[in-house]
C-alpha cells in the first residue's frame, strides 16, 4: 500500500531482546518524518516494551485526533506529522508470544488473517523474477505443499509454512538464473524436490514434472 502511495515504510521484526529505547527511537523517527512503521510480530516483545510502545502510539493517535499535533517524550515537545502511521502484526498461537496490552484495541483495528494465500504470494515473486508462467509455477508449488501437508504427520520437522514456500520460490529463481536452459516448471519442481529430499528418505515420484 505504501509503495502505491509513494511513501516510505519500515518493517521492523520484533524480538524479546528489543529494548524500550530501541522502540522509542523507531516511534520518534516515524511520527517526526511522517512515514509508516510496521512492527512485525509485535507480541514477541517483552511486556514492558509492548506496554510502553502502545502508550506512545496511543498518545500520538490522540495528538493527531485532537489536531494538536504535539507529543511529549522525555521532557521534549515534539511535532507529530499527521501522515505518520503505525501497523502491528502478531502470531498469537506461537511459542514465546505474549498477550497484547488491554489498551491496544483502543487504537488498533484488528484484521484477522487466518491463512496466507500461498499461491498468490508465490506468483508475485515469480512475476518479479520475470518468469513467463508465474501462475502455473505458483500453482504447481502450492499443490505440492498442499499434498505434503495432507499426507505427512503434523510434526515440527515437516515444515510446509509460508517461510518454507518462499525459500522454495527463491531457490527456483536461483536455479533458473543458473540454468536458463531448464524450463520454469522444471526448476520449480526441482526446488521442491530438493526440500523434500531433506525431509524424506524416498521422494515419491508423483511430484515429478
Question: Which secondary structure elements does this structure contain, and how are they paired or packed?
Answer:
Layout: H1 2-5, E1 9-13, H2 20-33, E2 36-40, H3 47-65, E3 70-73, E4 76-79, E5 85-88, H4 118-128, H5 134-151, H6 162-178, H7 184-199
Parallel strand pairs: 1-2, 2-5
Antiparallel strand pairs: 3-4
Helix pairs in contact: 2-3, 4-5, 4-6, 5-7, 6-7
Pfam families: AAA_6
Domain Dynein heavy chain hydrolytic ATP-binding dynein motor region: 3-198
Protein name: Dynein heavy chain hydrolytic ATP-binding dynein motor region domain-containing protein
Count of individual domains = 2
H/E element order: HEHEHEEEHHHH
Q: Specify the CATH architecture of the largest domain.
A: 3-Layer(aba) Sandwich
Q: Can you give the mean pLDDT?
A: 85
The rough form would be described as elongated
* Quaternary structure type: single chain
Q: What fraction, in percent, of the residue positions are helical?
A: 40-55%
What does this 3D model show about the protein?
The protein is mainly α. It has 2 domains: 2-106, P-loop containing nucleotide triphosphate hydrolases (Rossmann fold), CATH 3.40.50; 118-207, Dynein motor, AAA1 domain, small subdomain (Helicase, Ruva Protein, domain 3). The protein has helices at residues 2-5, 20-33, 47-65, 118-128, 134-151, 162-178, 184-199, and strands at 9-13, 36-40, 70-73, 76-79, 85-88. The strands form 2 sheets. It has a 3-stranded parallel beta sheet, covered by helices on one side. A two-stranded antiparallel ribbon has the order 3-4. The chain is elongated. The model has no long low-confidence stretch (mean pLDDT 85). InterPro entries: AAA_6 (IPR035699), DHC (IPR026983), Dynein_AAA1S (IPR043157), P-loop_NTPase (IPR027417). GO terms for molecular function: ATP binding; dynein intermediate chain binding; dynein light intermediate chain binding; minus-end-directed microtubule motor activity. Residues 3-198 form the Dynein heavy chain hydrolytic ATP-binding dynein motor region domain.
Amino acid at each position: 500500500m505504501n509503495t502505491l502511495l509513494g511513501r516510505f515504510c519500515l518493517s521492523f521484526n520484533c524480538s524479546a531482546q528489543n529494548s524500550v529505547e530501541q522502540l522509542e527511537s523507531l516511534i520518534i523517527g516515524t511520527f517526526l518524518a511522517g512515514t509508516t512503521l510496521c512492527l512485525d510480530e509485535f507480541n514477541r516483545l517483552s511486556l514492558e516494551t509492548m506496554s510502553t510502545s502502545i502508550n506512545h502510539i496511543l498518545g500520538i493517535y490522540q495528538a493527531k485526533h485532537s489536531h494538536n499535533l504535539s507529543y511529549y517524550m522525555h521532557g521534549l515537545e515534539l511535532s507529530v506529522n499527521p501522515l505518520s502511521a503505525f501497523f502491528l502484526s502478531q502470531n498469537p498461537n506461537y511459542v514465546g508470544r505474549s498477550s497484547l496490552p488491554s489498551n491496544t484495541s483502543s487504537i488498533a483495528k484488528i484484521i484477522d488473517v487466518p491463512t496466507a494465500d500461498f499461491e498468490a504470494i508465490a506468483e508475485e515473486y515469480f512475476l518479479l523474477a520475470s518468469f513467463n508462467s508465474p501462475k502455473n509455477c505458483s500453482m504447481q508449488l502450492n499443490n505440492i505443499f498442499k499434498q505434503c501437508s495432507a499426507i505427512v504427520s503434523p510434526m515440527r520437522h515437516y515444515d510446509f509454512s509460508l517461510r518454507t514456500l518462499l525459500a522454495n520460490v527463491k531457490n527456483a529463481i536461483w536455479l533458473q538464473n543458473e540454468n536458463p536452459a531448464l524450463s520454469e516448471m522444471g526448476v520449480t519442481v526441482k526446488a521442491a524436490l530438493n526440500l523434500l529430499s531433506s525431509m524424506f528418505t524416498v521422494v515419491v515420484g508423483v511430484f515429478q514434472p
